[in-house]
């Protein structure tokens, strides 16, 4: 397979880079921990290099993964969780389907109508229109879905997204947040928004692999992750 992501000019082999990136986004380790793990395998790296690799390759792999994930259901569960960037809380918008499969995710500096609308536009662009979306009683998420339904009316569609504001029905996505939080906890706080966004994209892909969303039976998690790079 041709390379989908360029590793031209990299000082280390592609396999080493991908292994380091995968290990960081799949397991709860810090860059210092990963530096030591790589040294145990005979690869001398500093944590700054590891940080640069994750920032450069994780988001590119996530973009390719979006194109390859298996078809998801049209009944969605949507919620946001909190992630610290430069000591400030930011908001990770996430959506899964009724079976728990990841649909989409987006890191935002704000938690408001504009951010919610931007997330729904992104999720629809990558997954198609849902029939139903379950949310909590967040006013901004409700407003975001109202805007999406307005768009459907303006485009002449004869149906609207059903919106259900039931917190107990959203337990499935609140449970799903736990995997993301487990991995971000050792990272403590991200130094930049772009770094946080790239790392979280990689974490989401590793989570999707765990959930079997790529129909690559028999392949290890690392093999599936590396395949997105070509």
UniProtKB/TrEMBL annotation:
Q: DDE domain: from which residue to which, for each copy? A: 75-213
Q: Which GO terms describe its biological process?
A: DNA recombination; transposition
User: Which domain of life, per UniProt?
Assistant: Bacteria
Q: Does the keyword DNA-binding apply?
A: yes
Q: GO molecular function of the protein, one example?
A: DNA binding
| UniProt KW DNA-binding keyword | yes
Q: Please give one Pfam family short name.
A: DDE_Tnp_IS240
InterPro entries in the record: DDE_dom (IPR032874), IS_Transposase (IPR052183), RNaseH-like_sf (IPR012337), RNaseH_sf (IPR036397), Transpos_IS6 (IPR047930)
- Keywords for this entry? DNA recombination, DNA-binding, Transposition
SUPFAM superfamilies in the record: Ribonuclease H-like
What is the protein's known function?
A: Involved in the transposition of the insertion sequence.
Q: What is this protein called?
A: Transposase (Or an inactivated derivative)
Q: From which organism does this entry originate?
A: Sulfitobacter brevis
